[in-house]
Design a protein that fits this description.
Elements: E1 7-18, E2 31-36, H1 42-49, E3 68-77, E4 84-90, H2 101-117, E5 121-128, H3 136-147, E6 152-156, H4 164-178, E7 183-184, H5 192-199
Parallel strand pairs: 2-4, 2-5, 5-6, 6-7
Antiparallel strand pairs: 1-3, 3-4
């Protein structure tokens, strides 16, 4: 039996990038959809959560990702340490003004269709900047997840900007306002706590 907090990433790889109007791949593996504003740190989370330094490319230019990207991983989480194959599905960031109107509409349409009907979808990860009010896009993601009773994992990124008292105040404020306790993410976060939560719902 493994340590109570043990998380093992046995394998992780980029699989496919899809245009917004492309059909999702045919697979029976559970999927976790990843959403957030442009430049909120989705690529960084993917790399740290999967234990890979440069699996997802981190760009200083907001809105660089314009495709829906699938990452396959095999992970085991204590106490059972049973290996599970999972896809992380990374959607383009919200709020990037340089998208054409047509591209934004295509992304919005495909996102709603995916969240409403994708049977393989087993959870939604929403990355937030906790100092900013939720955007309409972020609220819509939370509402769509709630409509299907999908597990919602909110991750507050870049939390090392704040002192301990400020972090506690911000996290408590978000939980009180939205009924969800965010997972705190900083530069050295390995996201074992996130995997612990996810493993309970797969």
């Amino acid at each position: 039996m493994g340590d109570a907090n043990e998380v093992i990433i046995h394998d992780a790889a980029f699989c496919i990038a899809l245009a917004p109007d492309a059909a999702p791949p045919e697979t029976e593996c559970p999927e976790l959809a990843l959403f957030g504003r442009s430049n909120v740190g989705k690529s960084t989370l993917i790399n740290r959560a999967l234990g890979r330094r440069a699996l997802a490319l981190v760009s200083k230019t907001p809105g660089k990702t314009r495709t829906v990207n699938y990452y396959r991983c095999i992970v085991s989480v204590s106490p059972r340490l049973v290996q599970k194959e999972i896809f992380l599905v990374d959607f383009p960031g919200f709020g990037y003004a340089r998208y054409s109107k047509g591209l934004r509409q295509a992304f919005n349409r495909s996102t709603v269709e995916y969240l409403r009907g994708r049977t393989q979808l087993k959870g939604v990860l929403l990355l937030i900047d906790i100092k900013r009010a939720l955007s309409q896009d972020e609220e819509a993601i939370m509402a769509l997840a709630a409509a299907r009773a999908l597990p919602l994992y909110v991750v507050a990124t870049k939390m090392d900007r704040f002192g301990s008292n400020e972090r506690r105040r911000l996290l408590q404020g978000f939980r009180k306002a939205h009924g969800v306790a965010p997972i705190e993410a900083a530069k050295d976060t390995r996201f074992d706590a996130l995997w612990q939560q996810i493993s309970q719902n797969l």
